[in-house]
Amino acid sequence: MLTTKLKGVGTSIFAEMSALADEAGAINLGQGYPDTDGPSEVLEAAVDAIRSGENQYPPGAGTAVLRRAVADHQQRFYGLVHDPVGEVLITAGATEAVAGAMLGMLDAGDEVVVFEPMFDSYAAVVALAGGRVAPVLLRPEPGGGYRFDPDELRRAVTARTKVILLNTPHNPTGKVFDAEEMELVATVARDHDLVVVTDEVYEHLAFPGATHVPIATLPGMADRTLTISSGGKTFSTTGWKVGWACGPAELVSAARAAKQFLTYVNGAPFQPAIAVGLGLGDGFFAGLAPALAAKRDRLVDGLVAAGFAVHPAEGTYFTTVDIRPVQVDGDGMGFCRSLPDRCGVVAVPCEVFYERPEQGRHLVRFACCKRDEVLDESAERLAGLDR
Ligand code: PMP
Predict the structure, then answer these.
(1) Residue 88: beta bridge partners?
(2) Which residue of 39, 153, 281, 330 has the lowest C-beta tally within 10 Å?
(3) Is the peptide bond before 169 cis (omega within 30 degrees of 0)?
């Protein structure tokens, strides 16, 4: 019964791994969500909004208060100026913003250049839009991060390419694209007159030593970039699903044209609450990355001690490892399926994030956005892994 468009896409690994976690009573380092609440001002603002009757359909583009808050945030952190009317769209999480952009921009046969591994919704929504993903590999460097070959990026562009779909800081690798890499991507976009759709949900989670550079801030890019983010990671409210897209009116309205028939609108009382969050003081935003970097370090120490070859993240909720020192056959999927029973921990096999799964067969992703005691308990369990 399944449409051929979704045949190659498979089912989400997260449901399977979370079910395994529940069955085995395992610690879930698979799915990326924090196990503590975000700022109380934000939570209280949602409660107040519900009590004061903000419970009906909000405007199609999102509440004026949140659109203004998103525009103010882009100006405050990046110097990017957007008219909240026409250049900002509120969506059901970043996921819907990406889906709206692909469904609203692509025609059948259009190609989208994407770095792989990639967040798992990308390939699915490009396929639903009738498009085709042209993957560019992010290669893990021994003991380090991930890098791409600029020639491979250039070669990925064809006459059918319409969009480069970028994600930085990057899930699942934890890579933060540096200024030189961003310039390379921007140059390709400008040379071939491409639109860039950029998913920046981890924008405030680039760890010390790495800097998040929004591609829209590069010369000549603001006019061709749709920037997507959401409140989920920044305010530890992943279940609220309040996201946004901002950029030139033409790109925002393409995303909106599709979005209006997906969810139409969402999250009425959460929208003013996320607006409160976006207006929090500099201290709140500045504290996010160092706090999470300490958790990354805790997780990395545990993974190294357990014998993995670790690629420490430069940002995001995640860190990836090469399992081959622990399991010589390098079968990440088999490893993750057996891990809950073997030691009571759940992780996600990176192959699900690849167009070419064999490229990521030996890589596994762990989440660090958990309480310290949970990370310590995970480290202890992984140390007891029989090899
Ligand atoms: N993009 C990336 C790169 C992500 O990692 C995630 C969440 N894991 C999302 C989008 C989803 O964001 P939202 O919940 O706001 O839809």
Answers:
(1) 246
(2) 281
(3) yes
Asked whether residue 189 falls in the same domain as residue 292, the answer is no
Divide the 387 residues of the chain into consecutive groups of 10 and give the mean pLDDT of each group: 81 81 89 94 98 98 98 98 98 98 98 97 96 98 93 98 98 97 98 98 98 97 98 98 98 98 97 98 98 98 97 98 96 95 95 95 98 97 85
Q: Tens digit of pLDDT for each residue in 147-201?
A: 999 999 999 999 999 999 999 999 999 999 999 999 999 999 999 999 999 999 9
How far is the C-alpha of 67 from the C-alpha of 146, rounded, in Å? 35
- Closest-lying ligand 1 atom to the alpha carbon of residue 170: 3
User: Separation of 108 CA from ligand 1 center, angstroms?
Assistant: 25
193 conformational bin, left if phi > 0, alpha if psi -120 to 50, beta if neither: left
How many domains does the chain divide into? 2
Asked whether residue 190 falls in the same domain as residue 327, the answer is no
> Does residue 11 share a domain with residue 77?
no
Output the residue whose Cα is nearest ligand 1's atom 15.
93
pTM above 0.90, yes or no: yes
Give the distance (Å) from ligand 1 centre to CA of residue 190.
Answer: 27
Regarding whether 272 and 148 lie in a shared domain, the answer is: yes
Judge if 100 and 205 occupy the same domain: yes
71-96 per-position pLDDT tens digit: 999 999 999 999 999 999 999 999 99
Q: Are 14 and 349 in contact (CB under 8 A)?
A: no
Say if ligand 1 is within 6 A of residue 94 CB: yes
Distance CA 195, CA 250 (A): 11
Distance 262 CA to ligand 1 centre (A): 17
The boundaries of the domain holding residue 14 are 4-38+284-383
Angle, helices 121-128 vs 93-105, to 10°: value is 30
Is the CB of 349 within 6 Å of ligand 1? no
Judged on CB neighbours under 10 Å (0-12, 13-18, 19+), 117 is buried
Strand partners, 29: none
Q: Is 167 in the pocket of ligand 1 (CB under 6 A)?
A: yes
Q: What is the CATH number of the domain that holds 218?
A: 3.40.640.10
